[in-house]
Write a structure and sequence with these properties.
Rossmann fold; Heat Shock Protein 90; 5-stranded parallel sheet; 2 domains; 10 helices; alpha/beta
Length: about 300
C-alpha cells in the first residue's frame, strides 16, 4: 500500500471509497487493513493538508472520511471545517477518531459536524459498523440530491399538502420535494430523511437500533425492512407528512402510527452517545437542519420549521 491517494492492493470488491487520515503510519495502515478486509477501497493521507489535496483532486469519489483529530500542520477540526465549508462535499460523512476522550472534546467534534466519534483504541468491528452506517446514509442523501429540479419545481406552487409514506424510497422522495421549498435545501433534506425514516423504522416497524446495526453490517437491512413492511400488522401503516408554507417559513408535521417513544434523551448532542452507530439523527437534525423541532403525542408526532425559499 502507498499513502496519499492510492488504494490498497489485493482489492476484489468495493463497498465504497474511504479516505483515512492519521499522522501515525502504523495507525493509517491498521485502519486501511480493517477497511480493506471489509471490502472498501481505501486512500490514505498523513495529515490534514494532504487530506484536503486528495479530496479536492477526487471530490466526487469518496463515500466517507476517517479522520484523526490531533495532527501537525492542519488538524482534524480544521479539516472538518474545511469540508463543511465546501459545497462539493455536502453530506460527506466524517468519522473522527482520536485519543482525546474528554466530554468537551467529544462535544466539540460532534458540534463541528462529525457523523461519528470513535476514541482510540477501537476494534475492527466498531470501525466497520460505523463506516458502513455512515456510507449507507450518505448514499441515500446523494440519491435524493441527484433528482432533477424539473421533478420538484411544481411543488413550489403549493402552499399546503399531505403525503402518506410507507417505504424508504418514498421517504427520500418526500424529503427531496419538501427541501425544494427551503432556502437551504441540503441540510433540510438530511433532517427530513432522518425524521421520516425514524418514523417508519422506530415508529411503524418497531425497529431496535442495535438490531438495525447488525442488519446493516450483514448487508441485510433492505431485506429486513421489506419483510417488516409485509407483516400483516404493518401493511396498512403509513407516515403522514403534512406541510404548510406561510410567512416566509415552512412548517412540516410528521406523524407515525407506532407506540411512541421518549424523545427527550435524543434531542441534544450528547457525548455519551457519540459512539452509537444509530440514534443521533434527531439531535443532528435539531442542530443543523431546522429552526425549530418539537415532539408531541408521546413521540408519534414531530413538527419542524425552516426558512422558505424566496
Amino acid at each position: 500500500m502507498s499513502d496519499v491517494g492510492e488504494q490498497g492492493q489485493g482489492m476484489r470488491m468495493s463497498n465504497g471509497k474511504v479516505l483515512t487520515v492519521d499522522d501515525e503510519a502504523i495507525a493509517r495502515r491498521l485502519l486501511s487493513e480493517f477497511l480493506e478486509d471489509a471490502g472498501y477501497e481505501v486512500a490514505m493521507a498523513s495529515d490534514g493538508e494532504q487530506a484536503m489535496a486528495v479530496l479536492e483532486a477526487e471530490y466526487d469519489r469518496f463515500d466517507a472520511v476517517v479522520l484523526d483529530r490531533v495532527m501537525p500542520r492542519m488538524d482534524g477540526m480544521q479539516v472538518m471545517r474545511a469540508i463543511a465549508a465546501d459545497t462539493r462535499f455536502i453530506g460527506l460523512p466524517v468519522i473522527m477518531q482520536t485519543a482525546l476522550a474528554e466530554p468537551d472534546e467529544i462535544r466539540a467534534g460532534i458540534e463541528a459536524g462529525a457523523y461519528y466519534y470513535i476514541t482510540k483504541p477501537y476494534d475492527e468491528d466498531t470501525l466497520v459498523r460505523v463506516v458502513g452506517a455512515a456510507i449507507e446514509k450518505f448514499r441515500q442523501f446523494r440519491e435524493v440530491m441527484s433528482w432533477g429540479i424539473e421533478a420538484t419545481a411544481g411543488l413550489s406552487l403549493l402552499r399546503r399538502g399531505e403525503f402518506q409514506v410507507r417505504t424508504h424510497q418514498e421517504a427520500n422522495m418526500v424529503a427531496n420535494l419538501l427541501a425544494d421549498l427551503a432556502a437551504r435545501p441540503a441540510p433540510v433534506i438530511n433532517g427530513l430523511m432522518e425524521l421520516i425514516t425514524n418514523a417508519i423504522e422506530n415508529g411503524n416497524l418497531d425497529v431496535d437500533a442495535a438490531d438495525k446495526a447488525d442488519f446493516v453490517v450483514l448487508g441485510q437491512w433492505g431485506d429486513e425492512v421489506r419483510r417488516r413492511l409485509a407483516l400483516p400488522e404493518n401493511r396498512e401503516k403509513s407516515v403522514s407528512v403534512r406541510f404548510v408554507v406561510s410567512g416566509g417559513r415552512v412548517d412540516v408535521a410528521i406523524k407515525d402510527q407506532g407506540a411512541g417513544f421518549d424523545w427527550r434523551p435524543f434531542m441534544e448532542l450528547d457525548e455519551s452517545r457519540a459512539y452509537d452507530i444509530h440514534g443521533r439523527g434527531i439531535a443532528m437534525a435539531a442542530a443543523f437542519s431546522f429552526d425549530t423541532i418539537e415532539y408531541g403525542e408521546e413521540g408519534t408526532l414531530v413538527e419542524v420549521t425552516f426558512p422558505a425559499a424566496r
